[in-house]
Task: inverse folding
């Protein structure tokens, strides 16, 4: 947590058009306000809503630093198996990749091993990390799979489930197609309530705030928003916009409450926390078309992939100005960036390729740059 002290004390907004930084004091955070230092042109900075952002086409490339696994179908999504930071915990080094009708479990500690597979319904098209496994959203059903691939929980639902997540205590939250509300369930699978959240719920990201119970960040891609929901009492705490075109949203292992998100339309990565209520702290300029993101709590680094340039970039965020730590070559069409508890990074592409960058490879890439600011950041006004 020491590396996040400065993050809790500084609220930073980056104007992507002028490429400058504005900083406000902790008092602004205490009031729940967000700083603004935008362009003078209100049209230029107007939010884009309604049409979900899409990643740019990637230049052709098969380069990268890791072992590559080829699946037999395009990927629909991918997730870490559980949120434990203990690499000896069950499933802590596993990632789960969803393709049509199958979930593939890949061990980042042994990437040469044949992935195990679990059959699911062909309607299942969304996967999320739960406290101890993964949750899969399907037609008329939501399920949780444990590290061994066995079903641990299930919910019967009338309609198409768009996204779902399960807390460690068994409670669940989900969204349904055509609804603007979150539905809440107890550990026995009984629906206990609902709350109007946003026009649609497309992702349910489980967050572990520091010293508090688990919460969910519900993402609306069309409205490009993050919605802070307390699953235990079935309430909406607050909502914020994620730039103008949210790509991916991820948290980290552990209980620091950090959430990272990519804004594909404004070429930036946004840093939030959900320790009391969702708050925006930093916006970091990135390479073209940022998409996959992950908060690497083990190294205290935020990672973001760029489909426009096939790069994986990491930043330190423990001060008011982001510091670029490393650029790593990435394959084309990266859609997910995941971290294993042992420190490995896993990149999953749209066309069914999974690249595992070992912990040693990643450590070697970043070790000499942890204390060296990059000339690009903070960016100067052009």
Result:
């Amino acid at each position: 947590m020491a590396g996040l002290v400065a993050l809790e004390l500084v609220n930073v907004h980056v104007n992507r058009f002028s490429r400058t930084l504005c900083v406000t004091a902790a008092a602004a955070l205490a009031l729940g306000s967000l700083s603004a230092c935008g362009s003078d042109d209100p049209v230029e900075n107007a939010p884009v809503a309604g049409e979900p952002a899409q990643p740019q086409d990637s230049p052709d490339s098969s380069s990268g630093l890791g072992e590559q696994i080829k699946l037999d179908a395009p990927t629909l999504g991918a997730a870490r198996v559980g949120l434990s930071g203990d690499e000896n915990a069950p499933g802590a080094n596993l990632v789960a990749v969803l393709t049509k009708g199958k979930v593939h479990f890949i061990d980042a500690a042994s990437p040469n091993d044949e992935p195990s597979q679990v059959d699911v319904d062909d309607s299942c098209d969304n996967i999320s990390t739960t406290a101890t496994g993964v949750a899969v959203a399907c037609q008329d059903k939501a399920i949780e799979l444990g590290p061994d691939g066995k079903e641990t929980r299930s919910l019967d639902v009338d309609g198409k489930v768009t996204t779902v997540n399960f807390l460690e205590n068994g409670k669940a939250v989900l969204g349904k197609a055509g609804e603007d509300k979150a539905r809440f369930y107890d550990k026995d699978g009984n629906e206990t309530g609902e709350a109007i959240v946003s026009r649609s719920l497309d992702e349910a990201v489980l967050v572990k705030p520091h010293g508090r119970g688990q919460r969910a960040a519900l993402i609306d891609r069309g409205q490009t928003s993050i919605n802070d929901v307390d699953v235990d009492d079935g309430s909406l705490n607050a909502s914020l916009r994620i730039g103008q075109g949210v790509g991916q949203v991820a948290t980290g292992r552990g209980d620091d409450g950090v959430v990272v998100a990519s804004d594909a339309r404004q070429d930036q990565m946004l840093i939030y926390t959900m320790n009391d209520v969702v708050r925006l702290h930093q916006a970091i300029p990135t390479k073209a078309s940022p998409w996959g993101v992950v908060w690497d709590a083990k190294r205290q680094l935020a990672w973001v992939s760029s489909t426009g340039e096939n790069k994986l970039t990491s930043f330190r965020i423990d001060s008011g100005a982001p510091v670029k730590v490393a650029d790593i070559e990435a394959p084309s069409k990266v859609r997910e960036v995941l971290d294993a508890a042992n420190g490995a990074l896993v990149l999953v592409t749209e066309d069914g390729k999974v690249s595992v960058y070992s912990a040693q490879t990643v450590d070697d890439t970043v070790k000499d740059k942890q204390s060296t600011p990059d000339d690009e950041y903070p960016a100067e006004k052009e």
About this structure: The first strand starts at residue 11 and ends at 15. Helices lie at 5-9, 26-30, 359-366. The first helix runs from residue 5 to 9. The chain has a mean pLDDT of 85.
